[in-house]
Amino acid sequence: MTEVNINEILKKAESIFSHVGILDVDTIVVHPAVREYCKENKCHQYDKKWTCPPGTGTLEECEERIRKYHRGLILQTTGELEDTLDFEGMGEISKLHTEKMIEFSKYFRKAVPTGMIVGDMPCIECKECTYPHEPCRFPDKISYSMSALGMIVSEVCRDNNINYYYGPGTLTYVGCVFID
Ligand code: SF4
After folding, report:
1. What predicted TM-score, i.e. pTM, was given to this entire model?
2. Nearest-atom index, ligand 1, CA of 51
C-alpha cells in the first residue's frame, strides 16, 4: 500500500468539518449492549441494509473489520439549536453532516482506497439496498454507522480527547474514517 499522508487527509477534513480529531483505533471498544439497542429498531433500519444489524454480521465480525486499522480521524459537525425542541434545527444539522460526509468520502475513497468510512447513519449509496437477497452492489463504497459496529459515539470521542458536547444549545453529529 502506498504511504498515506495523514496530515493531508487531516487538512482536508478540517476544511470541511466543524471539528476533527485523531482516532486511535486501539481505543475503540465494541459493546454487545449497543447491538441489543439496535434490535429495538427505533431508527426503522434494523434488518433493512447490509450496514445495519444483522446484515453487518456478528459483533465479532464487526470488531475484526475495525481491528484491521490503527489510525483514523473523528469528524464532527456542530450546529446551534433554538431550544431543546428545535427538531427542525436538529434535522438541518444532521443533513449538513451527511452532506459533509458525502463530500469528504469522495475525497477519502481516492486518497485511501483501503480505508473504511463510518458515519452516523446506514449506507445511503443506493436508493434501494440489495439486502438481503443479493450481495452488496458497491462493497468499495459501503459505509457503516458507528453504532452498527457496536461503538458508543460519546465514548469514542472521550477516549480520543475530542469533545462531543460544545455547550448549551449546540448539537454535534459524529462520523469517522479508518485510514491504516
Ligand atoms: S452500497 Fe448499496 S447495496 Fe451496498 S450496503 Fe450500501 S446501499 Fe446496500
Report:
1. 0.92
2. 5
